[in-house]
Structures are given as C-alpha cells and as structure tokens.
UniProtKB/TrEMBL annotation, chain A:
Transmembrane segments: 12-32
Pfam families xrefs: Rieske
Source organism of this protein record: Viridibacillus soli
InterPro entries: Rieske_2Fe-2S (IPR017941), Rieske_2Fe-2S_sf (IPR036922), Rieske_Fe-S_prot (IPR014349), Rieske_Fe-S_prot_C (IPR005805), TAT_signal (IPR006311)
Domain named Rieske: residues: 84-158
Required cofactor(s): [2Fe-2S] cluster
Protein name: Ubiquinol-cytochrome c reductase iron-sulfur subunit
Keyword terms of this UniProt record: 2Fe-2S, Disulfide bond, Iron, Iron-sulfur, Membrane, Metal-binding, Transmembrane, Transmembrane helix
Origin: domain of life: Bacteria
Automatic annotation (TrEMBL), chain B:
Annotated InterPro entries: DUF2487 (IPR019615)
Pfam families reported in the protein's UniProt record: DUF2487
Name the record gives this protein: YpiF family protein
Length: 167, 149
C-alpha cells in the first residue's frame, strides 16, 4: 500500500482532469445533440389520411372526396377539411388536387356546362383535362397536382401531393 | 386570399385577377340577451367567409371583419372602408353579414345578407355540409356581379 501512495501533485492532476472532462462534456454534448437532431426527428410528412370512400365504389367519373386532418398553426389548432377529385383509370386509383394552379381557387368537375369532361375553375375560367392537364389558352400554367393514394381495408387513403405524373 | 402579408404580396402582382374584396360585417352586442346571438352570428360569418375564400382564393380577398356596435355611426365607417378598398384597386366589393339592418341602411353597397346558423354544437361533417349549402346561395350573387362587369 505504502508503495502506491498518491502524491499531492498526482491527486490534483487527476481531480482537475476529471472535473475538466465533465465540464467539456457538458459543453460538447448539447452541441452534438443539436448537430444530429435532424436525423432523430420523426418524419410527419408521409402520413396518409383515411377517407370514407370505398375503393370498390369508384368509377371513371371523378367524385369529390373530403378528408379532414388537424393542422397546427403556431398555438392555433384547427381541423382542416380538404377535398380530392378521385376516379379510376383501369384498375388504378387517381386522386387529383382541386387547387387551381393559377391562383389557388377550387376547381370543379364539369363545373361549366359548356365543357363536359373537364375540370373548371370558377374564378378565371381555367380548364383542365380529366388527367389534370391544363388546357392551353386558359389562365393556368401547369397541370393539377396529384395525391399519393393507398388502400386500407377497401377504403381510400390520401397522402401528400406530388407533381402530376399522368401528363 | 386573406388580408395577410403573403397573400397581399400576391395581390400586388396579380391585381387584374384578384379584383374582388369581401368584408365581413359582425355586430358586437354586449347585452345579456344579445351576446350569445351576436357571438354565434360572428362565428358563422367567419366560417362562411373562410370557406368562400377557400373556393375562390384566386379572385377574392377576405378582409379582416368590420366589428361594430349598434350605437356606432356604422354607415360612415363602412363608406370610408369602401373608398379605401376602391382606391386599393378592388373592382367588386361585397359585404357579408348576418345583421339584417344593413340591407335597408346601405342600398348603394352590395350587401349579402345570410341568416346566421348556430354552428357551435355541430359535428365537423355537418358543419361542412351546412356551409356548402350556404355557399351555394352566395355563388350566384357573386357570378351575377362578375358577369355584369
């Protein structure tokens, strides 16, 4: 025992290194945590919302499907109801966003009696083909967006919008 | 469009397309009998104007509501608002309200009067269909003005 006596100098060295180490760790840990934070975040974007629309009841004529989700705007929570125009192309289910690419009004299927089989925007008479392609000569500059779709127990689920893949 | 910074930026560059303003007119009544009624009328009015905005975002700007009491000289106020919006560049200005007194008081303004429906206790989906029905009443009035140029 007496051979391994710790000198005063050694004791102070160990203590200071130990305390210094804790302090350095205390400073560095939050920095590391902040740096890797984006990797640890849960992804909320990919959520699909269940609708009441049965897939088997869809036809090739677009129908309006409402879906509601909770939107948090700072401290203000609200239930937002969105719609989609949904139809079947063969066996594939297609859901188009009703938001006009001109200035964001809501388009309607056959909203103008003079133009059958087209989406119509009541604000500035913009028109789209059934696949969402904007008709040249009307105000919109791009095709309607498309929703990602999924099926669950025979019911339609609607996800995020993406650029139109049909045009 | 709403009266918010982002939408006003769009308005300033797209004035030829966004030519219509909607001003909600909400009465504030503090009396024990009138308070509930005026509150649910305001709730209905705000929901309905927000729904109109969603459908006609690219042509209509919904302004902040004009709130008044019955003792205020509201007619003078609304004329000032009308002038202000005209000078901002709006061609069509609609006033939406559940207060019946406007229809007789301001014949020169386009007042859309809608009887208020208490939405407070309704389920989300019921509320949605009630508002859709009300919207169907409003759309022909808007289109008529727009078509009349």
């Amino acid at each position: 025992m007496s051979n391994n006596r710790v000198t005063r100098r050694q004791f102070l060295n160990y203590t200071l290194t130990g305390v210094g180490g804790f302090m350095a760790a205390g400073m560095l840990m939050p920095m590391v945590r902040f740096a890797v934070d984006p990797v640890l975040q849960k992804k909320e974007g990919g959520d699909f919302i269940l609708t009441k629309q049965k897939i088997s009841e869809l036809t090739e004529v677009p129908v309006k499907v409402d879906f509601t989700f909770e939107q948090v705007d700072a401290w203000y929570k609200s239930n937002v109801t969105n719609t989609a125009w949904v139809y079947k192309e063969g066996e594939e289910v297609i859901a188009l966003s009703p938001v006009c690419k001109h200035l964001g009004c809501t388009v309607n299927w056959e909203g103008d009696p003079e133009h059958k089989n087209q989406f119509f925007c009541p604000c500035h008479a913009g028109r789209y083909e059934k696949n969402g392609d904007n008709i040249k000569g009307t105000p919109p500059l791009g095709p309607l967006d498309e929703f990602e779709v999924k099926e669950k127990d025979g019911l339609l689920m609607i996800g995020n919008t993406r650029a139109n893949t049909l045009v | 469009m709403f009266w918010i910074g982002k939408d006003v930026d769009v308005f300033l560059t797209q004035k030829e397309f966004i030519d219509t303003a909607i001003v909600p007119l909400a009465v504030m009544d503090g009396s024990p009998i009138g308070m509930k009624q005026s509150a649910s009328a305001a709730e209905f009015l705000m929901s309905l104007t927000a729904f109109v905005e969603q459908q006609f975002k690219g042509r209509i700007m919904v302004t902040p509501p004009f709130t008044y009491t019955n003792s205020m000289p509201k007619k003078n106020f609304i004329e000032a608002i009308d002038d202000e919006l005209k000078s901002a560049g709006f061609k069509y200005i609609f006033y939406m309200t559940s207060d019946h007194s406007w229809t007789s008081e301001t014949p020169e303004l386009t007042v859309l009067w809608l009887p208020s429906i208490p939405l407070g206790d309704m389920d989300q989906s019921v509320k949605q269909s009630v508002l859709s029905d009300q919207l169907r009443q409003v759309v022909p009035m808007l289109s008529a003005k727009w078509a009349g140029q």
